[in-house]
Amino acid sequence: EPEVTQTPSHQVTQMGQEVILRCVPISNHLYFYWYRQILGQKVEFLVSFYNNEISEKSEIFDDQFSVERPDGSNFTLKIRSTKLEDSAMYFCASSEWGQGGYGYTFGSGTRLTVV
Amino acid sequence: ILNVEQSPQSLHVQEGDSTNFTCSFPSSNFYALHWYRWETAKSPEALFVMTLNGDEKKKGRISATLNTKEGYSYLYIKGSQPEDSATYLCAFTSGGSNYKLTFGKGTLLTVNP
Lengths: 115, 113
Fold this sequence. Notes:
The structure holds two protein chains of two kinds.
Chain A: E1 5-7, E2 10-13, E3 19-24, E4 31-37, E5 43-50, E6 53-57, E7 65-68, E8 75-79, E9 88-95, E10 105-106, E11 110-114
Parallel strand pairs in A: 2-11
Antiparallel strand pairs in A: 1-3, 3-8, 4-5, 4-9, 5-6, 7-8, 9-10, 9-11
Chain B: E1 5-7, E2 10-14, E3 19-24, E4 30-38, E5 45-50, E6 56-59, E7 62-67, E8 72-77, E9 86-94, E10 97-103, E11 107-112
Parallel strand pairs in B: 2-11
Antiparallel strand pairs in B: 1-3, 3-8, 4-5, 4-9, 6-7, 7-8, 9-10, 9-11
């Protein structure tokens, strides 16, 4: 069964450093998403991406965050200057259709620890 | 602010027991309700997506129902097995923002052999 792949599975970074989280969505999917879960809290939406542009973003997704699809297969989330509160599990997801009436396929996550 | 609540937060059952959990969500501007099963260190796995009031879906021993008028969904597991142990997440999309899933906190199910 096709999978969404995320790398790395765990990243430790110093506060103020830039990090790039990588995702390879399912090849025929057109819609891509990033979510995160801070330990003990709900999974939260960050951003959705379609046709090489952001289609929706949450208030969490401020100027420190950016997304890119640099080639035909990768989808990246960059955090420019990490803060302690950015420590979370970050999930990439993709879907064939953009409307929420269809299931999304999630990756297994990148655990980001900011020290 | 859209709020999705799940209960109970955690549940321990014996192998063979049947169990159910609840997800409540805003009933206005409803678009879809998703259930995901999430085992530690793995990807959340889509179980069901429901859009119509009265929808009932089934996958093996797991089934779900949807009431959009009162804003709740139930997930049922019949004859629980240890491999059913996982966190069960529900997520809601609204008509105003149907790209975005708003999640509940999940129900952690532990099935003891």
